[in-house]
Write a structure and sequence with these properties.
The chain is an alpha+beta fold. The protein has one domain (2-64). It is built from two helices and two strands; from the N terminus they run E-H-E-H. The chain has helices at residues 12-19, 58-64; strands spanning 2-8, 35-42. Strands 1-2 form a two-stranded antiparallel ribbon. The longest helix is centred in the N-terminal third of the chain and has 8 residues, at 12-19. The chain starts with a strand and ends with a helix.
């Protein structure tokens, strides 16, 4: 778990870049907003991920984020 300041990603290149990062979603389903967290603190707590079968459709994600 991290604590810090969150900023919504609003530029298309930022959102597209985030798809290549080694991140796992802890909740399945569409993601209409993408945020970057400037980490100030890391705790030892970890949330279970949605699992490796969770598929993100890039076109749908960009439409949800209104960045296409």
């Amino acid at each position: 778990m991290v604590k810090g300041r969150a900023r919504q990603l609003r530029q298309l290149h930022e959102v597209v870049h985030s798809f290549g990062l080694p991140l796992e979603s802890w909740q399945a389903g569409p993601k209409p907003r993408y945020v970057r967290i400037e980490v100030e603190q890391i705790t030892g707590r970890r949330l279970a991920s949605a699992g490796p079968d969770t598929v993100v459709d890039v076109r749908s994600a960009l439409q949800c984020a209104d960045l296409e």
